[in-house]
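Support case: zinc ion complex. Customer-provided input:
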Amino acid sequence: MTAKISFYGRELNTYRANLHMHSTNSDGVYSLGELIDLYGKEGYDVLAATDHYRTNKVSETDSGKLLMLSGMEFHPVGPRGLRLHLLAINIPEDFEDPSSLPYQEAIDAVRAVGGECILAHPYWCGLNCSDIMQIKNLTALEVYNSDTRFIGKGNSVQVWDNILQLGYHLPAVAVDDTHRARDFFGGWTMICAGEKTVSSVMEALKNGTYFATQGPVFHKLNFENNVFSVECSPCEELIVMSDCSFGICGSMSGLKAQNPAESKDSCEITHFETEIPDAPTLTYIRCQIKDKNGRYAWSAPVRI
Ligand SMILES: [Zn+2]
Ligand SMILES: [Zn+2]
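Agent response - structure generated as follows:
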């Protein structure tokens, strides 16, 4: 059954998505059919085929209940001569690889045909926040990438906060970047949408109506009258974060939850509410949670 979420006042369904994967059509070891089978059995709802430099004929695949998005990972040269890894999501199946174009033209070419661009594994690429600030018209960045964790660079949370603080209001996705067996099911994006259709899912992607996770889930996110409130699966750590040194800890491993009713047997927490001060230095808030297995989920940022 599809899980629900109360997303800033809207009652929506959540759809589990892997937005980054490679088949034998580029450097993956599984065929697209095998990937569809494996992700389908794991209970995913949405998959984007993002082979390097090329699309797949996703409309000709037998995807069962999975919604397939046509995509590509493309690689124009970016700021400081660094090779970018960008996901184009929802592009025509005959879309030509734009990697030889200047990076901004390549991104804009994707957008011109109705696609969205996600900045893949910025930490692994060596990108800093001033590099990313130069890349316009992105839809999201990857806060977590399963494949690149094997060189210790799967987690791009710091550069994400850096650009948010500089005013680049990007939400974040988590992905597998599936190449081989070790990459499976490590990070995914919970798309919060009315229905499992390309238009509804892409609308959610465009608007940041989703959260990134390695396992824990949000059931409710809300921000009203300066009060941020969250309901989630049981977590040992819950932090509401904002610019610079500002952060409010709802719970932290090793400490008791602030709500005594939550802390009888363990410090696991399932809901939290906090008032955000009306300070001009605070420009965004986001919530991150960690379960007892050390797995994180990250909400999209909200402007304040
Ligand atoms: Zn890549
Ligand atoms: Zn990739």
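Helices lie at 32-41, 103-112, 122-125, 129-133, 157-165, 198-207.

Case will auto-close in a few days if no follow-up is received.
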